[in-house]
Amino acid sequence: MSLPEINTKIQETAKRLLKEGKAEVVIGYRQGTAPMTVAPHFARTEDDCNQLVWSNFAKINLATYLPKFPGKVALIAKGCDARSAVGQVVESQIARENLYIVGVACNGMVDVELIQAKEPRPVFTAEEDMATIKLSGEGWSTSLTKDDVLRRACKTCVCRTPKDIADELIGAETPALSPDDYADLKALAAKSPEEKMAYFKGLVKDCLRCYACRNACPLCYCPVCFVDETRPQWLGKSQDEMDTFTFHILRAFHCSGRCTSCGSCEAVCPMDIKLREFNRILEEEVQRDWQYVPGLNWEQKPPLTTYRPDDEAEFIK
Amino acid sequence: MSEFEPKIVAFFCNWCTYGAADLAGVSRLEYPPNFRVVRLPCTGRLNPKYILEAFKRGADGVWVSGCHPGDCHYIAGNYHARRKFMLLHHMIEAVGVEPGRLHFSWISSAEATKFQEVAKEVVEKVRACGPNVNFRKAELNLGLPEVA
Amino acid sequence: MAEYIVKENALRNFFQALTEGGQRTLLAPAKVGDKLQMVECEADKITLDFANTHQSPKSAFFPQTQKLMAFHKDTSKSDPFVYKPLGLDNMKPTVLFGIRPCDAKGLVVADKVFQNNRFTDPYWKTAYESSIKIGLACTAPGPNCFCTGVGGSPFSETGLDALAYVKDGGLAIKAITADAEEFLKGLSGVEAAEVAGEMAELKKAVEAKMPGPIDMAKVASGEILDIFNQPHWKDTADRCLNCGTCTFVCPTCHCFDIQDEQNEKGGVRMRNWDTCMSWIYTVHGTGHNPRPTKTERMRQRFMHKLKYIPMKQDGDCGCIGCGRCVTLCPVNIDIREVAKQMNG
In a designed cystine with C317, which of A170, A217, A234, C150 is the match (CB 3.0 to 4.6 A)? Predict the structure, then answer.
């Protein structure tokens, strides 16, 4: 399906869902006001629905908004959005009967940072279809193949078409990708502790501690985050290297066995930190220990909320 | 120079290892004095941030010890804890903390000799790692001019 | 005021001379990793070809983490447990080269916050007043630039000591303050020239390409409470993540949090950037939070920029149109759109 076809389909579906009373609001995207941006859009009327679009420039995971809506919500979902929504149902943050997932067959989102690395000139207009991104500025224009500027998370997506978890699906199924093989992490694991720590501390050295990663994360719904706790205050507020490092370790830890690798955290980071490196460490471990992939099943319990008497932990004396 | 004496923060479950430490004491079993013990109601109560905080504040090692699987006073606290430990143990080493700094054990309140053995082993392993310099918060630089 | 040119082959010497033989710290646009930032850098790393730096230059005078004072606990000395200010008497003056006119205007907004008839912040004052700011006018504004929309100009001289633009690979510079004239005239590579005419023409040409003024008349004349209670806030806040990216990259956002850290030897009082987008920014000791949801927090930022600052600073807008928040907002909350809604 082409982009305009998908857009029409999304708009029709949204209108139908509102009319049938299956949803009070349809959450999707609308065109942004600046080049290479889209805005999350909350369609409550037919007019609103006409603004819904599908875009390659989607940054955040729309499931992030779900716990804040009390009524019936329909979600125009990429695979990762749908998986995170499932996760929120499993974790009792939203009620299944209040959620309607409109899955869209997705072939990945683009990374604006990668685009800018390939095309550093200021981009004044960006046009897109499912396979190419056309950029133009003052006196120039160029075309990029979408696959070359795909977000890292999208390259190893295990759920491009949320066909099993969506209530309905738009678009033909996209070919599956081979999942993350964690080759780089395995190579890193063989290095010395000093090298590993230098690598991870280097990743977060530019961190502003704005916590945009936390706020954009569909898993981070705690009423008070540990970074905001004051009695005791776990983390200093200055740009101290260890405080920053600890934040990133704990952020990843809190997402372990829950993270759907949507890459929202990386996409919103104003300093373009590769935050998923921390998440992937645990993602790999969770898959190895408990063969669990989050957000693909409505019934399965997240691994840290359950246990098996025969869990193997040979490092415990 | 005298040998490096590590500082180790120990998190012991009230129902088992804490008792084992007591029993080791009254049984006159000698074990190294490098621990600062934090008593917990259960290892399930242990938040991973306690461990990171201990390292961040300068601990050279951390030792967590609770009841044997199946013996939890609260039925399943240590089963849940074990899953957290599996991830934390992996995470901590993956980001570059030396493998010998973080230790876990199951010691019942009757196992005073096991307590003694593990205590010695933990201290030796942490001692072998040397002082924790990489995973701790830097000393505060006051930057004040010298005044007599 | 005097006008100069620096030829392309003299640029390196000129940049080196800006430090006055190491008397000043030179901050200029240069690549840090793959981002262009206003940083302390060597003369040959400076770039002249850019839209704007990734972050605003406010950290030159208002660092993200700044130690304000410290005490020690050594009772054998005469002054234990006495807080003493840090860094005020040995602060090295800076010279900022290549700051964009919008950002210079932003620093003026912040300056009026840190220095006014009620308060003077000694840390800001010491750093800001001793600095020399040489602006670099925009001849190719970026896609999200709108300084002309909020009363600025790509050739604005507000807050600058001198304004330069790129001419034949070198620089044409116009001194704006007497200090700058004194500073520039003796520097290596600087030749006297007439550039004001060309500058005025360029200014006209570039401004013509840029967006027209954003109508804020009703925001200026309206009652605070009326704007405060407009219904659009809720709609915009629906998608706001309260991530704070806008406040961290904004040249005029100046809120901070004072923190004490101490150990057995002493303690330090420091201030860190804070953000009104954060829950903890307004939460009281009692647990009450006067800005309980993201709607209030997001509204605060726009009210502050577009209503409160103009009220306090003789009508000057708190937004200077650099476009950083527009570019970096992950959910495309566009201050230009919000301004329109507030005015409408």
Answer: C150
pTM of the model: 0.93
pLDDT digits (tens, 9 = 90+) for A26-55: 999 999 999 999 999 999 999 999 999 999
For residue A307, CA distances in Å to A230, B82, C238 come to 32, 8, 38
Percent of chain A with pLDDT over 70: 100
Q: Give contacts of C269 with chain B, Cβ < 8 Å.
A: none
Mean pLDDT of C300-324: 93
Which CATH number does the domain housing residue B42 bear?
Answer: 3.40.50
Q: What is the 3-state composition of chain C as percent helix, strand, coil, each rounded to the nearest 5?
A: 35, 20, 45
Q: Does C72 touch chain B (CB under 8 A)?
A: yes
Domain residues for A144? 120-148
Looking at the 3D structure of chain A, how many domains does it have?
2
pLDDT score, position A8: 94
C155 has a pLDDT exceeding 50: yes
Q: Does one domain contain both A133 and A37?
A: no
Q: Please, is A306 exposed, middle or buried when counting C-beta atoms within 10 Å of its C-beta (0-12, 13-18, 19+)?
A: middle
Closest CA to A261 of A294, A216, A221, A213: A294
Chains linked to C by 3 or more Cβ pairs within 8 Å? A, B
Residue-wise pLDDT tens digits, B101-148 = 999 999 999 999 999 999 999 999 999 999 999 899 988 888 887 665
The predicted structure's pLDDT at residue C134: 94
**Domain for residue A312, yes or no?**
no
Q: What is the pLDDT of residues A215-270, one digit of tens each?
A: 999 999 998 899 998 888 899 888 899 999 999 999 999 999 999 999 999 999 99
Residue A313 belongs to some domain of the structure: no
Domain housing B69: 8-129
Cβ of A250 and B52 within 8 Å? Answer: yes
Q: Which residues contact A8 (CB under 8 A, 6 or more apart)?
A: none
Asked whether residue B106 is domain-assigned, the answer is yes
**Which CA distances in Å does C63 have to A164, B3, C158, C251?**
50, 42, 22, 12
How many structural domains comprise chain B?
Answer: 1
For residue B146, being part of any structural domain is answered with no
Q: Specify whether A97 is located in the same domain as A8.
A: yes
Q: In terms of DSSP H, where are the helices of C138-287?
A: 178-185, 196-209, 217-221, 224-228, 232-239, 245-249
Taking the CA of residue C248 and the nearest CA in chain A, the distance in Å comes to 7
